[in-house]
Q: What sequence folds into this?
């Protein structure tokens, strides 16, 4: 058995044919022993050959036609509650460089990881942040030239995205998109629709104007720009402001051409947008930045020298701060939210009038995401910043349709795709910390199916981890949404969070797979992630590819570098194989605790089986340092023997025999995971 990464990669060359055949012949649901780092480097023709053998020629050819739509494996569901049993994998496409490489990576995923979440897929603005979308155009950096070279009809990034979703569906997995309630501060969206945003006017260290109707001055300034420099495309356009900015009288598609140019010419559009930004910036006009956590409202310019940024065009930007901050208050300068409600008192006190929603804006945003859900056959949405709840009195008893933008979008899309689900990015923080009121009530009021939670921010086996896990599992049965057993996310694959992943990674994955009443989420890169006792170079962290920086502490110089942790990869592969063998028999059977998680963390062993007709018993020692002794497994009185079918290398392979109506496990090694068949 090879123990080093380089030796493993060399050995793959000699063994790959047998591994690939196990997949193409249907004996496995993924290609065993195929490293994700190797998978994304596979030649396109080899991948097409594998897919043809696995899916059949007819299905493959149908999927590769962007005019066709392959049925989703979840479209028979009546609603989005199917998300509550999904083991999901999140993919930052920038780490693997193209949509086509998502298909290659999927060859490494077992059937038990049945869903894929794509981080934002749109053109980016400032620092190229995926979450600072600049337009509704699909990001051209995700185009795969090699794929287009072999299949010339796939000559646009849009066509490639469509066939990739087709193939993911044909491979038996659902797929979802990010839904972002904000854009880049000077996105094409904002400049073409100033009334859909809040604006402020700044002079150096002072906000001199943040009136509720400041967008009208911005519209006048944009029209003056057009009159001075002319349209980007030779075409007629209304010269009066109300008509030009009316999506009824002069549709956005035409307005975008006048302002920025042809869709396919990204360089020219960005140049033109930069000229318009200069025109607005000279008068101090900026969109109001997005904020997080109470009190949300009330902004001031951050006067510190380190809060100043000078961009490549010499523009001096200032960060903003909340004037009366609380614990988690944050301001995201490069991002701006849609203006979903009117303001009170002309916004002089930064107060929102939640009784006065702006339906035109809600519908605009929902229509855009509906277009992507339908055009590209997405099955669910992951709601970015779903924890935002700005109403100071908390969640209303009966939230209406304009309570939450994610809820509105979910319901809007479900008119056409009943199975469309909602996976919320919220962390189940204490009341009034990241949202006004109780976050659980907000999630229910928002029609959330599942939510992220925060287990990825804790070290396995600590009192904090066990306590939160116990609470999350209880929420499954007391709330209408299900928290995820989150393994790792793009936000947590960052040098600041290395301590979370030094040990216990197999435990995380094991629990995620076999806790059948709890969904899970894993970020790409976890499978090979190296432990980092000291920070590694930035290129080893997926979080740092959410944006593109060439300078500073978060800069990256090369493409993402995969970990070389062969031991972890082998261990997770063994768990994947067991999961694919076992889960089809128990997936719809709720669990029954034999040893429930102890919220006090005095007992660090947990054990569970199935509530109806038990077939398997799972035992985990959450203590990463100490062996647990004399573990009694009760509630299995009618069985005589438990056959050990899975263990880690540190554990003995022992069957258990009933003694005085219980089974006793004499000891279980630190971080050990065991499976017994009854």
A:
């Amino acid at each position: 058995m090879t123990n080093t990464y380089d030796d493993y990669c060399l050995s793959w060359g000699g063994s790959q044919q047998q591994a690939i055949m196990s997949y193409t012949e249907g004996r496995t649901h993924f290609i065993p022993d195929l490293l994700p780092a190797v998978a994304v480097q596979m030649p396109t023709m080899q991948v097409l050959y594998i897919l043809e053998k696995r899916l059949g020629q007819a299905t493959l050819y149908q999927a590769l036609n962007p005019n066709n739509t392959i049925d989703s494996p979840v479209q028979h569901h009546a609603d989005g509650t199917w998300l509550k049993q999904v083991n999901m994998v999140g993919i930052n496409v920038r780490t693997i460089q193209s949509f086509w490489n998502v298909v290659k990576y999927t060859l490494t995923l077992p059937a038990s990881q049945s869903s894929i979440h794509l981080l934002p897929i749109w053109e980016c603005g400032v620092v190229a942040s995926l979450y600072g979308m600049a337009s509704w155009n699909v990001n051209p950096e995700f185009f795969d030239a090699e794929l287009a070279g072999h299949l010339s009809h796939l000559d646009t990034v849009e066509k490639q995205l469509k066939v990739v979703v087709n193939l993911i569906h044909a491979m038996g997995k659902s797929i979802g998109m990010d839904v972002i309630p904000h854009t880049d501060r000077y996105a094409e969206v904002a400049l073409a629709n100033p009334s859909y945003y809040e604006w402020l006017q700044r002079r150096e260290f002072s906000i001199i104007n943040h009136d509720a109707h400041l967008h009208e001055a911005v519209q006048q300034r944009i029209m003056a720009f057009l009159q001075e420099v002319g349209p980007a495309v030779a075409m007629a356009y209304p010269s009066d402001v109300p008509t030009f900015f009316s999506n009824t009288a002069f549709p956005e598609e035409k307005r975008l051409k006048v302002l920025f140019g042809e869709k396919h010419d990204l360089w020219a559009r960005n140049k033109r947008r930069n000229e318009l930004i200069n025109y607005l910036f000279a008068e101090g006009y900026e969109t109001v930045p997005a904020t997080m956590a109470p009190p949300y409202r009330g902004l001031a310019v951050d006067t510190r020298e380190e809060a100043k940024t000078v961009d490549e065009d010499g523009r001096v930007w200032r960060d903003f701060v909340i004037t009366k901050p609380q614990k988690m208050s944050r301001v995201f300068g490069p991002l701006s939210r849609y203006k979903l409600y009117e303001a009170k008192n002309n916004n002089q006190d930064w107060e929102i009038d939640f009784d006065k929603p702006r339906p035109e804006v809600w519908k605009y945003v929902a229509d855009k995401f509906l277009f992507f859900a339908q055009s590209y056959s997405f099955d669910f949405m992951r709601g970015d910043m779903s924890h935002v709840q700005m109403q100071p009195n908390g969640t209303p008893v009966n939230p209406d349709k304009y309570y939450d933008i994610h809820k509105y979008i979910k319901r809007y899309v479900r008119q056409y795709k009943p199975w469309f689900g909602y996976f919320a990015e919220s962390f189940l923080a204490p009341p009034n910390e990241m949202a006004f009121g109780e976050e659980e009530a907000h999630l229910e009021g928002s029609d959330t199916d599942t939510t992220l939670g925060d287990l990825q921010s804790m070290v396995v086996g600590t009192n904090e981890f066990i306590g939160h896990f116990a609470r999350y599992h209880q929420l499954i049965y007391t709330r209408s949404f299900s928290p995820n057993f989150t393994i790792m996310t793009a936000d947590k694959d960052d040098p600041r969070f290395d301590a979370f992943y030094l040990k216990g990674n197999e435990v995380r994955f094991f629990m995620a797979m076999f806790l059948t009443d709890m969904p899970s989420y894993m970020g790409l890169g976890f499978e090979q992630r190296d432990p980092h006792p000291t920070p590694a170079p930035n290129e080893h962290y997926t979080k740092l590819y959410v944006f593109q920086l060439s300078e500073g502490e978060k800069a990256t110089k090369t493409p993402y570098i995969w970990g070389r942790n062969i031991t972890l990869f082998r261990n997770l592969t063994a768990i994947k194989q067991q999961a694919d063998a076992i889960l089809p028999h128990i997936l719809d059977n709720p669990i029954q605790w034999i040893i429930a998680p102890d919220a006090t963390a005095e007992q660090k062993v947990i054990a569970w089986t199935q509530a109806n007709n038990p077939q398997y018993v799972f035992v985990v020692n959450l203590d990463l340092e100490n062996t647990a002794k004399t573990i009694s497994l009760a509630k299995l009185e009618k069985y005589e023997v438990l056959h050990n079918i899975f263990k880690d290398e540190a554990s003995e392979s022992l069957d258990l025999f009933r003694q005085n109506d219980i089974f006793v496990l004499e000891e279980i090694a630190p971080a050990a995971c065991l499976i017994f068949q009854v």
